[in-house]
Amino acid sequence: METKHSLESKANELVRTPNSHDLAVAIINLQKDVNIGGIVRTASAAALSGVIIVGRRRWNKSPAVGAHRKIPIRKFTTIEKFLDYSTSQGYNLVSVEIGKDAENIFEYTYPPRTLLVIGSEGSGIPRRILEVSKGKIYIPQYGDIECLNAAVSGSIAIYDWIRKKAGLPTKGIDGQKFCSYY
């Protein structure tokens, strides 16, 4: 029997429209609402086809500043359900993760139907997801910190993909805001 939650998820299918890029982002077990909201807001601003949230916790939507109402969001409670969905939809997972086998993001060529994966602030991306990822990318750093936070990393990866593959025109500017007309 379908639950209200599963019906709501199906209503938020991640489907590319003429007004969205063929890119989605998945966030795995993020703990900080500001990181979830930041990625959702960036995904909406970048006109992605959607966001997938994996994990059991609820999140405070206020850091998304309303962006969660402007982009499809799917939620999965387990990694297995997320992997089944991403495989059934033909996504190529690209994990944003620091590691010896990761490629520099600025030299990376994204596969078609990319699904960027951003992992937990502390533990990163689960091994099971890394094993099935078509690519692993890292963001080079030049200063003296261990890593960037999840929202910043996700935002950089999203806009790197757009810089390399975008097909949509940018919105016009009206004063200090973007507008719907050109």
Report what the structure shows:
It is a single chain. This protein has 182 residues and is an alpha/beta fold. The protein has one domain (4-179): 3-Layer(aba) Sandwich (Alpha/beta knot), CATH 3.40.1280.10. Helix content is 29%, strand content 20%. Strands 3-2-1-6-4-7-5 form a seven-stranded parallel β-sheet, sandwiched between helices. A two-stranded antiparallel ribbon has the order 8-9. Helix 2 runs parallel beside helix 5 (150-165). The longest helix has 16 residues, at 150-165.
Secondary structure layout plus pairing:
Blueprint (H helix, E strand, L loop, with lengths): L3 H8 L11 E6 L4 H13 L4 E5 L18 E4 L2 H10 L3 E5 L6 E2 L9 E5 L8 H6 L2 E4 L11 H16 L6 E3 L2 E3 L3
Structure keywords:
182 residues; Alpha/beta knot; two-stranded antiparallel sheet; 7-stranded parallel sheet; alpha/beta; 9 strands
